[in-house]
Design a protein that fits this description.
The complex is a heterodimer of chains A (115) and B (112).
Chain A lengths: L3 E4 L2 E4 L5 E7 L5 E7 L5 E9 L2 E4 L6 E3 L9 E3 L8 E8 L10 E2 L3 E5 L1
Parallel strand pairs in A: 2-11
Antiparallel strand pairs in A: 1-3, 3-8, 4-5, 4-9, 5-6, 7-8, 9-10, 9-11
Chain B lengths: L2 E3 L3 E5 L4 E8 L3 E9 L6 E6 L3 E5 L2 E6 L4 E6 L8 E11 L2 E6 L3 E6 L1
Parallel strand pairs in B: 2-11
Antiparallel strand pairs in B: 1-3, 3-8, 4-5, 4-9, 6-7, 7-8, 9-10, 9-11
Classes of the chains: A mainly beta (115), B mainly beta (112).
Chain lengths: 115, 112
């Protein structure tokens, strides 16, 4: 199993550009989520999904869109990049869309810089 | 919404014990996790509590009191490799299912 994969690992964008961060898992996990982590800070939840076709907003959803058309993939779209979106982005997945939530498996992260 | 509070930083000596507290306010509580994160790496799972009491796993233990909205992570016999950030995360039940939110993390520095 590859676990949780994220691409790209590094990205530099100009203000106003759009892009999609890719996330895929091969563990048949129902629950997937996106977090951003700014230097010296904890993880802030952007969007999450409890299964294909079901997504919801986290703490900091503005400027980001998600969709979940398959169980395996959960891409994060930046609509119009801003310097405030410079951060490290982590995707995570786990069993447990409802009932008990199991441990999260994290991808390696995408380091995004917006100039 | 929910508030999750942890101390920002703690320093301890190799071989000692450190206790990292986490307080939270949430509705629909459905479990609390602790994760470890070394600098530049992704978080990794340490422990899970959903009922009151202590869960022990080797040198690490985690405690939960649901009535007080309080948890702690206890690290015993500290080693230099335990220098990392420790993240408390609270799961709550929403209409669509689970939702996991993290606190700001506690950076632990272990000194010789």
């Amino acid at each position: 199993n590859a676990g949780v994969t994220q691409t790209p690992k590094f990205q530099v964008l100009k203000t106003g550009q759009s892009m999609t961060l890719q996330c895929a898992q091969d563990m048949n996990h129902e629950y997937m989520s996106w977090y951003r982590q700014d230097p010296g800070m904890g993880l802030r939840l952007i969007h999450y999904s409890v299964g294909a076709g079901i997504t919801d907003q986290g703490e900091v959803p503005n400027g980001y869109n998600v969709s979940r058309s398959t169980t395996e993939d959960f891409p994060l779209r930046l609509l119009s990049a801003a310097p405030s979106q410079t951060s490290v982005y982590f995707c995570a997945s786990s069993y447990g869309a409802s009932g008990r939530l199991y441990e999260q498996y994290f991808g390696p992260g995408t380091r995004l810089t917006v100039t | 919404g929910q508030n999750i509070d942890q101390p920002t930083e703690m320093t301890a000596t190799e071989g000692a014990i450190v206790q990292i507290n986490c307080t939270y306010q949430t509705s629909g509580f459905n479990g609390l996790f602790w994760y470890q994160q070394h600098a530049g790496e992704a978080p990794t799972f340490l422990s899970y509590n959903v009922l009151d009491g202590l869960e022990e796993k080797g040198r690490f233990s985690s405690f939960l009191s649901r009535s007080k909205g309080y948890s702690y992570l206890l690290l015993k016999e500290l080693q230099m490799k335990d220098s990392a950030s420790y993240l408390c995360a609270v799961n709550m039940i929403k209409a669509a299912g689970n939702k996991l939110t993290f606190g700001g993390g506690t950076r632990v520095l272990v000194k010789p």
